[in-house]
Write a structure and sequence with these properties.
- The chain is of the alpha+beta class and 169 residues long.
- Helix content is 36%, strand content 20%.
- The strands form two sheets. A four-stranded antiparallel β-sheet has the order 5-6-4-7, covered by helices on one side. It has a three-stranded antiparallel β-sheet with strand order 1-2-3, with no helix packed on it.
- β5 and β6 form a beta hairpin.
- The longest helix is centred in the middle third of the chain and has 19 residues.
Length: 169
């Protein structure tokens, strides 16, 4: 896949810019993450992202949870991404038998079974809503968010209202 100048990636039949902020919480919200535990987790996160053709844009941690900002292709589901990230990092951390982990967590689990995934990047929601509404032939509300600048420029150049007139929607 190639990456364009505005951060968009392209595949054979798709152009995309997908980013997600994921948060993983330790089992029982125990404070089991330290700097050396995070080092092992970070290596696992980078390995999974490389395998799934994702970019680990940013990663951070606190003693009871980890934050990841990931750019991912549309062929990767978020549930699969979370499963691979949590699974490999848990196995790697548990294999090292860090005392700070074994004292606070028992059994084989490191992470809570749940996760948080929040989409991010791109235009603000109000801008996207106005753009979508404009595509249905309804004008954007006055005083509200303006439609995409690209659409306004296209209308000014007459791209949308060519020979088919207003039926070109």
């Amino acid at each position: 896949m190639s990456r364009g100048s505005k951060g968009y990636s392209a595949g054979a039949h798709v152009v995309f810019k997908l980013q997600v902020h994921m948060v993983f919480v330790t089992k029982y919200r125990r404070h089991a993450i330290t700097a050396r535990v995070f080092e092992v987790m970070g290596e696992a996160f980078r390995e999974v992202c490389a395998k799934l053709e994702c970019d680990l844009v940013e990663v951070g941690w606190e003693p009871d949870h980890a934050h990841l900002l990931i750019a991912y292709p549309p062929k990767v589901t978020l549930s699969t991404l979370a499963q691979y990230l949590k699974g490999l990092s848990s196995r790697r951390v548990r294999a090292r038998r860090f005392p700070e982990v074994t004292r606070k967590l028992w059994g084989s689990a490191f992470w809570s079974p749940s996760y948080c995934a929040v989409s991010c990047g791109g235009a603000p929601l109000a801008t996207v809503k106005a753009y979508v509404k404009a595509q249905r032939g309804e004008p954007a509300p006055s005083g509200g968010a303006a439609s995409s600048p690209g659409i306004a420029a296209a209308h000014a150049r007459g791209i949308r209202g060519s020979s088919t007139g207003s039926k070109n929607r």
